[in-house]
Structure formats: C-alpha cells, structure tokens
Amino acid sequence: MVELLSATERQDALQNLPGWSEISDRAAIGRSFVFKDFSEAFGFMTRVALAAEKADHHPDWRNVYKTVDVVLTTHDAGGVTARDIALAKAIDAIARPFR
Ligand code: HBI
Hints:
This is Putative pterin-4-alpha-carbinolamine dehydratase. With 99 residues, the chain is of the alpha+beta class. It has one domain (21-98): 2-Layer Sandwich (Gyrase A, domain 2). The chain is built from 3 helices and 4 strands; from the N terminus they run αββαββα. Bound molecules: 7,8-dihydrobiopterin.
C-alpha cells in the first residue's frame, strides 16, 4: 500500500508543481486548467485519461466548456501520496503543448 506523504513532503512536492495547491478539506491536491475551447479541453482530458489508465491512478475532475478542474488523491490511502504527485507531473506535461 502506498504511503501518505507528510505535510512537509506535500509542501516540497508542490514547490515543483506550479499551479497546484493543497485542497486540505479533501486531503487532495488540485489545479484548474483553461484551454482555448472545449475541443482542446477535451483533447487534454483524452490524453490524461490514457495516462491515468496506464498509471492505474485516476483524477477526480470536472469539465465546464474550456475549463478542467483536476483533483488528485489516493483513495486507498485516504490522502495525498507519491502517486498523486507523479500523475500531477504527467498531467502538466500533457497540458504544456496546449499553451
Ligand atoms: N485512483 N486517484 C486514485 N486513487 C486510488 O486509490 C486509485 C485510483 N485508481 C485505481 C485504484 N486506486 C486501484 O488501484 C484500486 O481501486 C484497486
């Protein structure tokens, strides 16, 4: 079972994840992405979905038109783990070319 990150480990990880922040009441981390239009937003979601399947770690996300709100937590551990940090990094790499 993957271990929960400590508060310090979470803060350190977030230093290298610009745009992501702690959602403390949900024991999670989150970031919002705004794209040019719905088509780009959904293209981003399609790519993230494939990465999530590969990682067997899935986002809790919401899409309204060109905005995608992403929340990551590890249900099995009841909070933020290294798996969330790894997926956040993968998600940022997917979002980069859309800029
Ligand atoms: N995704 N975010 C998240 N958190 C999990 O704990 C998780 C998951 N996707 C799949 C998964 N766990 C499976 O390993 C378990 O449901 C068996």
